[in-house]
Amino acid sequence: MTAVPKSVFEYPVHVYPHHTDYAGIVWHGTYVAWMEEARVAFLRAHGLNFAHWVIAGVDLPVVELTLRYRQSLGMGMDAMVRAWLEPRRGVRLVWQYDIQNQATGETCVLGTVVLAPVDRQTRRVLRRLPAEFQQDLDRLYAE
Amino acid sequence: MTAVPKSVFEYPVHVYPHHTDYAGIVWHGTYVAWMEEARVAFLRAHGLNFAHWVIAGVDLPVVELTLRYRQSLGMGMDAMVRAWLEPRRGVRLVWQYDIQNQATGETCVLGTVVLAPVDRQTRRVLRRLPAEFQQDLDRLYAE
Amino acid sequence: MTAVPKSVFEYPVHVYPHHTDYAGIVWHGTYVAWMEEARVAFLRAHGLNFAHWVIAGVDLPVVELTLRYRQSLGMGMDAMVRAWLEPRRGVRLVWQYDIQNQATGETCVLGTVVLAPVDRQTRRVLRRLPAEFQQDLDRLYAE
Amino acid sequence: MTAVPKSVFEYPVHVYPHHTDYAGIVWHGTYVAWMEEARVAFLRAHGLNFAHWVIAGVDLPVVELTLRYRQSLGMGMDAMVRAWLEPRRGVRLVWQYDIQNQATGETCVLGTVVLAPVDRQTRRVLRRLPAEFQQDLDRLYAE
């Protein structure tokens, strides 16, 4: 995967019935929601309120998503979604994820999500962010 | 339940893995999505495009929802969502649902959903609809 | 609604993007998942591990679900799912919910969920629970 | 992407409210469900009943998932999920997806999903499938 990140955000999740499928384990699409939650919680923890961006007309849609499934998680288990931001590359934000079984510390799912800022109305990629949001990001990368 | 409806809309659904939970049967919240799909498909079949309402600033949120679960549906089964509109009562739309196992014709879930038109910005109930949408509804009830 | 409950369980939820729909507010079916989470967390807080029940062959499916929507919750808001158990009536468990906007304390959604214990294989209602699980429930109601 | 496939399966989808998020477009995780539906429908169209595999103790979990998002799909739009199977490589099944806007024919999302057969109880990868299921797959690749 990547080098050891300087700052990993940990977002705990409990496996509830609605996360599972017929196999008694977490349905593969459920992780996409968990990763979104961890990402938004990470931003909040760094003083960045994503809902404010959206109200101000800037959206941050996912443009790429990759998941590799190694181990399953069963109902009633506790998972830890570990997320970190890759070093800055232009306007895109690249997140790495390592979702672990809390009880064993084993990696269950590895993920990468790439976001790109767009104008909420036109859905076009923004090459420059409004100053306020650029400061949000600068702060995020500085930490 | 209610009297036999004059016009029942039938919306077929196949049970895919993501609809199920650890028990191997349809998760109880999945039916809420199926009922929404059947409702919107019903409206489309009667020439009413819900997305147009929303673009024009009128939303139709659910204000009440009731489900009674009688039988489960397993993965790979085929269900028929049978939906009909109750006779008009003011601005609210009252939908009844009978979700059946296609193979046996048995009722699996009975549901009721009540919608109320609201202004999309203020989220306040609209006592009068814009003329265009009122005509949409009049047509719906006339059939 | 009902009389003031003796013991209310509080389960906090943040509104993430995947909880919302085109209207920018929580999609009406999302609350079904939150209510399930609050219920299972309540049971855990009282020493009852739902996953153990399932492994032992006893399931607790939802047999009735009622939701009344009063106010919407927007993306980025914080909600509090307040849940309590109605006094015992036979083998069924009756849960009441009052989902509030944390910032204002206003009720957004009122809900009722009825569960019935079934044999996991046959899906038939169990008139008597295995002793271990009966003790779980007795403890739950005693508190 | 890959060479033109010999046999593309087309699975139409309508964008319902529950597929969307606050941005009024399909939430990025929704595509994972659509891809699963298209895959299972493809198998059914080729006489392979996935639920039978599961009952017989063979599961086909997703081991890798990649999505690239190019254009959004708004509520009320019609999409076509185009899916095909890559030439056989060992026991893994590699699916390619091109999800298009039906009205314009433009590609909205490109996806790849890799499945691996596992024993349902042990979750270990099966190097050999039971003869019945091997024949299912041989038929799938022969077409």
Identify the overall geometry of chain A. elongated
Q: What kind of assembly state do the chains in view correspond to?
A: homotetramer
Tell me, rounded to a whole number, the average pLDDT of chain A: 93
Give the tally of structural domains of chain A: 1
Largest interface, and how many residues on either side? A-D, 22 and 22 residues
Considering the chains and any ligands shown, give keywords for the structure.
143 residues; alpha+beta; five-stranded antiparallel sheet; Thiol Ester Dehydrase, Chain A; elongated; 3 helices; homotetramer; two-stranded antiparallel sheet
Provide a descriptive summary of the structure in words.
The structure is a homotetramer of 143-residue chains. With 143 residues, chain A is of the alpha+beta class. Chain A has a single domain (9-138), classed as Hotdog Thioesterase (Thiol Ester Dehydrase, Chain A). Chain A contains three helices and seven strands, in the order βααββββββα. The first copy, chain A, has helices at residues 30-45, 50-55, 131-142; strands spanning 9-14, 58-59, 62-69, 78-85, 93-101, 107-115, 118-119. In chain A, the strands form two sheets. In chain A, strands 1-4-5-6-3 form a five-stranded antiparallel beta sheet, covered by helices on one side. The first copy, chain A, has a two-stranded antiparallel ribbon with strand order 2-7. In chain A, a hairpin with a 7-residue loop joins β4 and β5 (93-101). The longest helix of chain A is centred in the N-terminal third of the chain and has 16 residues, at 30-45. Chain A is elongated, with a radius of gyration of 16 Å. Chain A starts with 8 loop residues before the first strand and ends with a helix. The A-D interface holds A 22-23, 25, 28-29, 32-33, 36, 54, 59, 61-69, 72, 120, 123 and D 22-23, 25, 28-29, 32-33, 36, 54, 59, 61-69, 72, 120, 123.
